[in-house]
Design goal:
Layout: H1 5-23, H2 35-42, H3 46-58, E1 62-65, E2 69-72, H4 77-101, H5 104-122, H6 126-144, H7 147-166, H8 173-188, H9 192-215
Antiparallel strand pairs: 1-2
Helix pairs in contact: 1-3, 4-6, 4-7, 4-8, 4-9, 5-6, 5-8, 6-8, 8-9
Length: 216
């Protein structure tokens, strides 16, 4: 196995770039994955790109079809409900662990990210809202100190983020920000029960939003 750090870095850069294109629907569901196009878009080589695509395949963002090659996986709204059921269990664990283990500086950072989300929601700034949401995830994941829970939840978060971009007209940024603030406050206060409740409120919101999309 090659542990050359520059190679690993290039694969990570490729992964982040392609994931962002899939999540923001620049690469649409059902679109074919064309290596030469991605090389041109990212400016990266074939090897890191292939490594990134393998990871994406295992995360369920892209899928291999017979005779069609790799395509961006479709968004299955009905499947999304069971995804949230699974995410709910892991998010509770992460929230409780973060409330218990976060350092004082991480508690402050978690609150700051939630405040940025509220601010972005008030101004209807989707790009800023999503950036703050991602930043909040990173800090909470660092605070919980449970790498296996974080590895399990990341593919689910990515799919939820793409779902939000696809159906943002059904979403309520202010309500989503309020739920994130409850979660952040519980963690920042070191109150495990409130942190778990905040995670539940967030999953309740995501589930009701998903059902709204399904029922059209």
């Amino acid at each position: 196995m090659n542990h050359n750090p520059s190679k690993l870095r290039a694969a990570d850069v490729a992964y982040d770039a392609i994931e962002s294109m899939i999540v923001t629907l620049q690469l649409k569901p059902g679109a074919p994955i064309v290596e030469s196009d991605l090389i041109e878009l990212t400016g990266l080589g074939r090897t890191p790109l292939r490594e990134a695509l393998m990871r994406m395949s295992s995360n369920g963002l892209i899928t291999q079809l017979p005779r069609r090659g790799l395509i961006v996986k479709d968004i299955e709204a009905a499947e999304h409900v069971s995804l949230i059921e699974t995410r709910r269990v892991i998010e509770r664990l992460i929230a409780v662990s973060a409330a218990r283990r976060a350092t004082p500086s991480l508690r402050l950072a978690i609150l700051a990210c939630a405040e940025q989300m509220t601010n972005a929601a008030t101004h209807h700034d989707l790009a800023e809202f999503m950036a703050a949401d991602q930043a909040l995830d990173h800090v909470v994941h660092e605070a919980c100190r449970n790498p296996s829970a974080v590895s399990a939840v990341i593919p689910l978060i990515i799919k939820c983020r793409r779902f939000w971009y696809a159906y943002q007209h059904e979403g309520d940024m202010l309500e989503a920000a309020r739920c994130h603030m409850l979660l952040a406050q519980g963690i920042a206060d070191g109150h495990e029960e409130n942190a778990a409740k905040g995670a539940d409120h967030l999953m309740d919101y995501l589930e009701s939003y998903t059902r709204k999309v399904i029922n059209g």
